[in-house]
Write a structure and sequence with these properties.
alpha/beta; seven-stranded mixed beta sheet; RibonucZ/Hydroxyglut_hydro; RNA endonuclease activity; MBL; exonuclease; Putative exonuclease of the beta-lactamase fold involved in RNA processing
Amino acid sequence: MDLSITFLGGVGTVTGSKYLLETNGLRILVDCGLFQGYKQLRLRNWAALPVEPVSIDAVILTHAHLDHSGYVPLLIRNGFKGPVICTQGTKDLCEILLPDSGFLQEKDADFANRHGYSKHQPALPLYTKKDAEKSLESFQTVAFDTPHDVLGKLTVCFKCAGHILGAAIVEVSIKGRKIVFSGDLGRYGDATMLDPAPIREADYLLVESTYGNRLHEALEPEEILAEAISTTARRGGTVIIPAFAVGRAQSILLHIHRMKKAQRIPDLPVFLDSPMAIRASNVFQDHVGVHRLTAQECDWERNAVRYTESVEQSKSLSQNRMPKVIISASGMATGGRVLHHLKHYAPDPRNLILFAGYQAGGTRGAAISAGAKSVKIHGHEVPIRAKVSNLDMLSAHADANEIMQWLGNFERPPTLTFVTHGEPDASDQLRHRIESELGWRCSVPYYLETTALV
């Protein structure tokens, strides 16, 4: 095949994004993410990559979320020698996310070994904090809207995707063809991020479908958030918000700041209990102009948010019985400090567990959102008696109508549109809409499928 693409992840699921472009011995990997959620997906992280890492010439990242970047340290440890190309915002966030991912994996493995609940003896991390820190040496940054030559064989151009800081739609020009990777598309009119940039043409398109079968509620997020916080406070409870450290946490902080300023909620203490989210929040101050927030709005501590950096500070939140708001990673309750808060607060019906976006199948977040009576945390079943809610309208992903709105910018249909990064039903429903409403030729690829790009 002169030019082909192989789907090494990000198909049949919203995680593990990895798309391999090949031509005449050249191999380019667009996105390099971890699989998350169901155990059978997570096991792919431990299996050998279907291609030798040393044979890959370059990696191009759409953005920093771990389902798109989290496999990079392992790829490099296993032999990859090329550059990892991304925007400055993505690199800055990866400097936070990747070492934290390695640290948490080491910590989880140590906890499992000390408490004996792992089936593996000893339990090992997928990679370490040191692996992640070393991988950052391979990162190279490119400005938005600036065509960049890669190895003298292709050109890459990053366009604003919204979604999170640094997130990009990736245009790859190779062999006279333009292949566009949507990455994760943000929302129009988002409170913190800019609108996704319009794309006019592509020979081949990969479009995400996280919300390909759903629409976000047409509600004012601050109205719903104010009611949830106020109601919980009146019954003497605490609001636990599992939030993605990058993007979602900052959006929630902004809304809470505005509501406090307008006296729409009680003057409760608000804690940001995630070192990663704290660092990510500070990065926003370095990138004023590529998001919607002012420098003053990015000064979170000045806006009455209390940072809990240390483990001791985090533990003290469980001993404080006063009503409060705790924002803590991770967003799908797959790891991090939020698990300790859930262990403490989930059994009490006065409290509220407030998710703030998509919960991938197989995660604790998905189970709790679906009404699970208990979930396993650190080897023990924890009863879920707290109230549970989800603010889907705070999602950083475009919904089905917004994806169609973005596709409406194309002046000619791509030769083929691949619908990726979604659960099977979401991807197939979006495929059907694109075919019926736009008349485009579409495919929902399967894991390890290879397609010639003629």
